[in-house]
Amino acid sequence: MSKALSHAKIVPRRSRERGHGDHGWLNSYHTFSFANYYDPKFQSFGSLRVLNEDRVAGGSGFPTHPHRDAEIFSYILNGELTHRDSMIKKGAEGSQGDDFYRMKRGDVQFTTGGTGIAHSEQNESDKEVHFLQIWALPWSRGLTPRYHTKTFSEEAKRSAFLPILSPLKAGPGASAADEKAAEPTLPDTIPIHADFVMAAGIIGVDKRFKWTIGGNAVKKTQGRNVYIHVPMTKNGSAKIRLDGREDAVLGEGDGAFVSNVNAGDVLSFESIGEAEAEVVVLDSD
């Protein structure tokens, strides 16, 4: 198959080359430098700063800890993860929105760290939880801390890439009222304070999806930085090919840096494994 985006540079990031820490209660793989893993070649990619693939044992989790000046989101792959902060008491489980939330597969929780916020993330069930923890760098510091949670349809992800995050529509100059309204550029997504789009798809065996760079939602149109990640969800049976390139075949846990692309370019994905492939797109300035 010929390359549709011959000008694009695609560099795989193999699962086995990621940073890795197994702490017993937490088994974590780091695409970028994080905690005790440091590699100067893998610090960030556009606004994308952290991509950890985590498994947390039942009855354990991350105790209360602070965040500041980062946009942080959790994408749940399997199991349950409970978020709490000091303002919300145990038992006050909420639904989608800004309040306490017990997350399960298909859910995304988003945190604007801004001027500072403290929370915990616990696996209160007796089964392991598997999720992606992703951080992006915001377009300005000192933002007002905020949470959002939202459930995204499995069925929709099986038909095409489903946008999950898109830039706050009001942009970097948003007023307090704009921040409170929290309107995203793309309807039915979570707003992020960055020129950044996240999408997810579940590509059936022998099926093809396409992603339009920029997701029709961004300000920076030239030289975007798109990271592709294939979570480890099918015991190694999922595999995709990017842009028809044999040197851009990704298995589970693998990712790829896609650069030298512009908004409007179309990147193709083929599912060539023995199981459907879950794929996350992180499209950054």
From TrEMBL:
<keyword id="KW-0408">Iron</keyword>
<dbReference type="GO" id="GO:0046872">
    <property type="term" value="F:metal ion binding"/>
</dbReference>
<protein>
    <submittedName>
        <fullName>RmlC-like cupin</fullName>
    </submittedName>
</protein>
<dbReference type="Pfam" id="PF02678">
    <property type="entry name" value="Pirin"/>
</dbReference>
<feature type="region of interest" description="Disordered">
    <location>
        <begin position="1"/>
        <end position="22"/>
    </location>
</feature>
<feature type="binding site">
    <location>
        <position position="67"/>
    </location>
    <ligand>
        <name>Fe cation</name>
    </ligand>
</feature>
<dbReference type="InterPro" id="IPR012093">
    <property type="entry name" value="Pirin"/>
</dbReference>
<comment type="similarity">
    <text>Belongs to the pirin family.</text>
</comment>
<feature type="domain" description="Pirin N-terminal">
    <location>
        <begin position="16"/>
        <end position="135"/>
    </location>
</feature>
<dbReference type="InterPro" id="IPR011051">
    <property type="entry name" value="RmlC_Cupin_sf"/>
</dbReference>
<feature type="binding site">
    <location>
        <position position="119"/>
    </location>
    <ligand>
        <name>Fe cation</name>
    </ligand>
</feature>
<keyword id="KW-0479">Metal-binding</keyword>
<feature type="binding site">
    <location>
        <position position="121"/>
    </location>
    <ligand>
        <name>Fe cation</name>
    </ligand>
</feature>
<dbReference type="InterPro" id="IPR003829">
    <property type="entry name" value="Pirin_N_dom"/>
</dbReference>
<feature type="binding site">
    <location>
        <position position="65"/>
    </location>
    <ligand>
        <name>Fe cation</name>
    </ligand>
</feature>
<dbReference type="InterPro" id="IPR014710">
    <property type="entry name" value="RmlC-like_jellyroll"/>
</dbReference>
